[in-house]
Amino acid sequence: MDKNHALDAFAALSQSTRLDVFRLLIKAGDTGMSAGDIGDTLGVRQNTMSANLGVLARSGLIRSMREGRSIRYFADMDGMRGLLAFLMEDCCGGRPELCQPVINELACAC
Questions:
Q1: Are 12 and 18 a contacting pair, CB within 8 Å?
Q2: Which of 13, 15, 29, 86 could staple 1 via S-S, CB 3.0–4.6 A?
Q3: Residue 60 carries which DSSP code?
């Protein structure tokens, strides 16, 4: 991931509803969620949710899949890994033991 792409991702996550959506989709995992279910869970109107989902999709943090007349949204784990890798690419000045606590915190215990 390059700097401009990282800035787009951070801009997308810098708004409260979009951050909540992204975290919710990470929690949903491989099953994802429909836009209506996301809006209902977070108490956000459809047109507002649509705009926020568009921003997150353009930033590369979420992806969508059409299911008949509805669209299911998922956290884009490649996008998230790219953002985290960008943040940590020069981590710890060549001393990986300093980064290990951060890596352990990020590791999924599922």
A1: yes
A2: 86
A3: T
Q: CA triplet 14, 15, 18: central angle to 5 degrees? A: 105
Whether 35 and 65 have beta carbons less than 8 Å apart is answered as no
Query: Of 86, 90, 15, which Cα lies nearest the Cα of 49?
Result: 15
| Domain carrying residue 74 | 3-106
Tell me the CATH number at 78: 1.10.10.10
pTM of the model: 0.86
Q: Distance of alpha carbon 87 from its chain centroid, rounded?
A: 15
Alpha carbon of 103 to those of 43, 63, 99: distances in Å?
33, 25, 6
Q: What's the Rg (C-alpha) of the chain? A: 15
CA gap 72, 4 in Å, rounded: 27
